[in-house]
Amino acid sequence: MKKVITYGTFDLLHTGHINILRRAKQCGDYLIVAISADEFNAIKGKEAYYSFEQRKAILEAIRYVDEVIPEYTWEQKKDDVEKHDVDVFVMGDDWEGEFDFLKDQCEVVYLPRTVGISTTKIKTDLNLNKANNG
Ligand code: C2G
After folding, report:
1. CA atoms of 79 and 25, how far apart (whole Å)
2. Less crowded by CB within 10 Å, the N or C end of the chain?
């Protein structure tokens, strides 16, 4: 069984997330998603709308996702790849090159991001909409 792993916050789930999850799953047979814990989001300078538990429940409901684990640190990837016997590490290409240090453990794949959608854009658009409509 070819195991794939990917990492992210996955807040306010959108088609960009779904596209990367679908393509990540197509890289193997079993997809593990490491979702940033709320404490780690603070380190990343991100404040997710949904808590870790909510984001975990949402991701677990997606057909492409086989397992969800927490991401607590930048440094855990090498151990995760080892512990979960991962064959392929997948990330969007906004991270191109950042995780090449994993290449001695597994295949590293950067996939094109989905253009025009992001959690930040959703929040901005909603705030603008509220401002315009009161
Ligand atoms: N993504 C995408 N297209 C978008 C938006 C996001 O392909 N329009 C991808 C990102 O490239 C990433 C994944 O979806 O691979 C999750 O994105 P985020 O939730 O923004 O995760 P990020 O903050 O990049 O955290 O240790 C790695 C970090 O946890 C990654």
Report:
1. 21
2. C
DSSP assigned state of 94:
G
Q: Is the C-beta atom of 91 inside 6 A of ligand 1?
A: yes
Which residue's alpha carbon is at the smallest distance from atom 7 of ligand 1? 113
76 CB-near residues (< 8 Å, 6+ apart):
34
pTM of the model: 0.96
- Helix, strand, coil percentages (3-state) for the chain, rounded to 5, are 45, 20, 35
Give the C-alpha distances (Å, rounded to integers) separating 66 from 10, 99, 111, 120, 132.
15, 22, 20, 27, 41
Single-letter code of the amino acid located at 110: Y
Give the tokens for residue 28. Answer: 């193997």
| Strand order across the beta sheet in which 88-92 lies | 67-71, 30-36, 3-8, 88-92, 107-111
Q: What are the pLDDT digits (tens) for 7-34?
A: 999 999 999 999 999 999 999 999 999 9
Q: With a 6 A CB cut-off, is 36 part of the ligand 1 pocket?
A: yes
